[in-house]
Amino acid sequence: MDDATQPKLSRIQQRNRTRITDAALEIFSQHGFRGATLDQIAGEAGLSKPNLLYYFDSKEAIHVDVLNRLMETWLAPLEAIDPQGEPREELLRYIRRKLEMAFEFPRESRLFANEIVQGAPRMGPHLETGLKPLFEEKAALIQSWIDAGRLPPLDPRHLILSIWATTQHYADFEAQTRVLLEGSDVQQSAWAHLEALYARMLSC
């Protein structure tokens, strides 16, 4: 059942629904949509499969719910870029928050990456109606800062994409990063590097 048609849930029902989505995040981030099963999700949630199906009628319904919630969290830092702020500071703040999220929410990042790698079969509409307009809005804002001479001449779209690539790498390839940077404070050293890199890149 979807959120639009289901009746208001009791506190216990809300707690169980949260248990299911938290468990699904863990299973989907490990196995992807195709590799995950309802039995795995139910087991991770500590619920029976019939109990799980009371709240969600299919694996796809759970996956879509988790992805929808993820999109809200994932887009918040981009939305928070302030048109009235100082451009360089706004972008460095955005980069720092994206890096923090890579370490705070590695499962969410991997789940999103898996969905995109598979061709975004369940997220396609949200990319068109949610992500794309926001992406274009912020790219236009950055371009206005460039046109005003407040940032160097960069392609704002590729700048945003490069920020995503350099920050989310630490979540999506966590196992590799942990081996390659063994013994270091990865988050702190990553921020020191990215701050210096983008500070130079964004200097007029």
From TrEMBL:
Keywords: DNA-binding. Transmembrane segments: none annotated. It comes from Poseidonocella sedimentorum. One of its GO terms (molecular function) is transcription cis-regulatory region binding. PROSITE patterns: HTH_TETR_2 (PS50977). Residues 37-56 bind DNA. Coiled coil: none annotated. One of its GO terms (biological process) is negative regulation of DNA-templated transcription. InterPro entries: Homeodomain-like_sf, HTH-type_TetR-like_transc_reg, HTH_TetR, Tet_transcr_reg_TetR-rel_C_sf, Tscrpt_reg_YcdC_C. Residues 14-74 form the HTH tetR-type domain. This is Transcriptional regulator, TetR family. The keyword Membrane does not apply. It holds the Pfam family TetR_N.
